[in-house]
Amino acid sequence: MNRRYPPFLIGVLAFAYAFLYVPIVLVIVYSFNDSRLVSVWGGFSLRWYRALLENEQVLRAAWLSLRVAIVSATVATVLGTLAGIALTRMGRYPGRFLFTGMLAAPLVMPEIITGLSLLLLFVTLQDLIGWPSGRGALTITLSHITFCMAFVAVVAQSRLAAMDAALEEAALDLGGTPFRVTLDITLPLIMPAMVSGWLLSFTLSLDDLVITSFVSGPGASTLPMLIYSKVKLGLTPDINALATLIIVMVSICVGVAGWLMYRRPVPQRV
Amino acid sequence: MPDSPAQSPSSDAARRLPRPWDNPAQVPFIQIKGLSKRFDDVTAVNDVSLDIFRGELFAILGGSGSGKTTLLRMLAGFEQPAAGSIVIDGVDMTPVPPYERPVNMMFQSYALFPHMTVEQNVAYGLRKEGLPRADIARRVAEMLALVKLGSLGGRKPDQLSGGEQQRVALARALVKRPKVLLLDEPLAALDRKLREHTQFELMNIQDQLGITFLVVTHDQEEAMTLATRIAVMNAGRFVQVGTPAEIYEFPCNRFVADFFGTVNLFSGRVAGNSGDTLSFRADNLPGVICAPATTCQTGDEAWIAVRPEKISLSKAPPAGSDENVFRGMVWDLAYYGNLSLYQINLDGGHIIEVSVQNRVRSAQRVAEWYDEVYVYWGKQNSVVLRE
User: Which residues of B touch A189 (CB under 8 A)?
Assistant: First the structure.
């Protein structure tokens, strides 16, 4: 069918997408710039990518970011999934709405407040029990687990809520103990939600700057912190290359996560 | 066909099946005693008691919200009763969790595990029992052959049609050889042609295996054709328990009479009750309706129920007795091929429904719109209802 779209709508749409994506495209294009000056085109080159590989500081920050992201996404996926299962499968109890809401609240809490409160907590804990001693990779990971967990729980919960509860009942009826039923039926069916929760947590952890700045200590700089501090000293072209690498990684994670969530719908309740 | 006197339920010779429920020496297979369940402020099941016998195909029939599904879920163990007990084959099941009950359920949504093949679905229950691999494979194959799905064992549920999914669900529930099979609206998701076919298949399988079936349904036709006995449920209680014929021909109140098929109801008062005849004066109807004698007293408020197919229709007044003969006018008619349905506006303004079998091939009908007609029925076809 030949549909004619109103030119005005196309114009608005083009403007909106340009607004969103032109800056990102510029970063990517200039990452291949041969020139030393950030805003002057000097021909195509991969020299800034090569420079990145030789930059000890960048590599150390990237390695820390990756470690933090992998550990916190994994722990958050386990805890968040369990929380999601508990909240959806406990049936009706007083205060259910409150608990469900409270699990999602960290998602909309201003990061500056989350960061500040976590910093306070870590300082108090150190005074009281001596753990965690000082701030660094451990405190960053713990903080990332807290906000990623809320995210995974919400994703797992929505998948569980859409799943026919009769599936679990059928398995119980056929002789599976509640623990076996969770392993045999529930977990395989919400696995896509868990994987996509993991990928999104990984992404969130990888880009977090505000909370991380609050809870990190001397010598523990993540990639976003490093970029931010470098930009304060003036833009260098290798930052563009680094940004491009991060964009590619995040796009892959978010794309796979979205595909997993919408690829095959769970069997719906009748 | 001349009307013969109605058989009382206890001497129903038409069904030559053994009737264990009439034998006091027979021990019930499932005994439900004083079972109740409340959800917040709603009493879903209210002090229900029921005996079901081995090999029965028992149907619990009720509208939505009648408590029938809650009762079924208590039998499966998914809901804990607030009071009462469930005994199956002499063992009190009330405290037993669902995974240890000798009961399996076929869910309305079928609840097939989407990440497993048909074979894995059917084998799940046997694997949880810890049977040897070879035994599992043999029993799964047998069961799939029984439900005629032998060649589809490797498919995933979403590659099956609705009827095939239904049979997988049945096979999965039967493979553990449960003492009781619970079926929640087993045919509701199938289209009409498939339903009729599946209905007979279900009865055949039940016959072959001898497992006690307990079906929950809202469809009175399904209950009547499938079941040995039916319990009609309303507002958490059983209104009437009996064979399909007992419930259809001898309903205990207006709710049951109306729930099963169509019925013409006359409200009024008992005018006399002598010998073997009860005479009844209906509101808005000249003359009296005759019915078999009951324990009613003269002057009692009551209702007379008459089924449309029990009423005869003719254009001339019937010869002989003038008992239960009323004059009226054809108000509306519908032709169904095998039968015609007439709405007759009786003198006095009461509109009743009469169904006439089209027994002779003819383009002519017994009566046409606005014809004056007479309707009549034998007094044994009048059912006296007190509530």
Answer: 114-115
- Are residues A170 and B78, on separate chains, in Cβ contact within 8 Å? no
Give the pLDDT score at A169: 94
What order of strands is seen across the sheet that includes strand B42-52? Answer: B42-52, B30-39, B83-88, B91-92
* Options 1.10.3720.10, 3.40.50.1110, 1.10.760.10, 3.40.50.10470; CATH of A50-263: 1.10.3720.10
- Give chain B's residues under pLDDT 50: 1-5, 7-16
Nearest Cβ partner of B111 from A164, A178, A266?
A: A164
Is A172's CB within 8 Å of B100's CB?
no
Q: Is B124 at the interface with chain A, CB within 8 A? A: yes
User: Could you give the ipTM of this predicted complex?
Assistant: 0.80
Q: What is the pLDDT of residue A239?
A: 87
Residue B293 and residue B246 share a domain: no
Give B341's strand partners: B334, B355
B212-217 and B180-184 as β-strands: parallel, antiparallel, unpaired? parallel
Q: What pLDDT sits at residue B17?
A: 55
Instruction: Please indicate whether, in this complex, the C-beta atoms of A166 and B76 are within 8 angstroms of each other.
Output: no
Structure-token match 């009786």, residue found: B346
Tens digits of residue pLDDT in A207-223 = 899 999 999 988 889 99
Asked if the model's pLDDT at residue A1 lies above 60, the reply is no
Burial class (CB in 10 A: 0-12, 13-18, 19+), B334: exposed
Closest CA to A77 of A260, A263, A270: A260
Question: In chain A, whose CA is at the least distance from the CA of B169?
Answer: A170
Q: How far apart are the first and last CA of chain A?
A: 35
pLDDT band per the 50, 70, 90 thresholds, residue A268? very low
> B335-343 long-range contacts, Cβ below 8 Å, gap at least 24?
B335/B365, B340/B365, B340/B366, B341/B308, B342/B313, B342/B366, B342/B367, B342/B373
Question: How far B174 CA lies from chain A's nearest CA (Å)?
Answer: 10
The average confidence (pLDDT) of chain A is 88
pLDDT (0 to 100) of residue A270? 39
pLDDT at B32: 94
Q: Do B109 and A166 touch (CB under 8 A)?
A: yes
Predicted confidence (pLDDT) per residue in A123-163, tens digit: 999 999 988 888 889 999 999 999 999 999 999 988 898 88
Contact B78 A172 (CB under 8 A): yes
Task: Identify the CATH number of the domain in which residue B54 sits.
Answer: 3.40.50.300
Contact A141, A68 (CB under 8 A): yes
**pTM of the model as a whole:** 0.81
CB contact under 8 A, A166 and B114: no
Residue B45's H or E segment, with its range, is strand B42-52
Mutation target vs A (from B70, B115, B177; most A CBs, 10 A cutoff): B115
Give the HSE-up count for residue A139: Cα atoms under 13 Å, Cβ half-sphere.
Answer: 29
Are B113 and B158 within one domain? yes
Residues of A with CB under 8 A from a CB of B: 164, 166-167, 169-178, 180, 184-185, 188-189, 266-267, 269-270
Contact at CB, A174 and B100, closer than 8 angstroms: no
pLDDT the model gives residue A248: 92
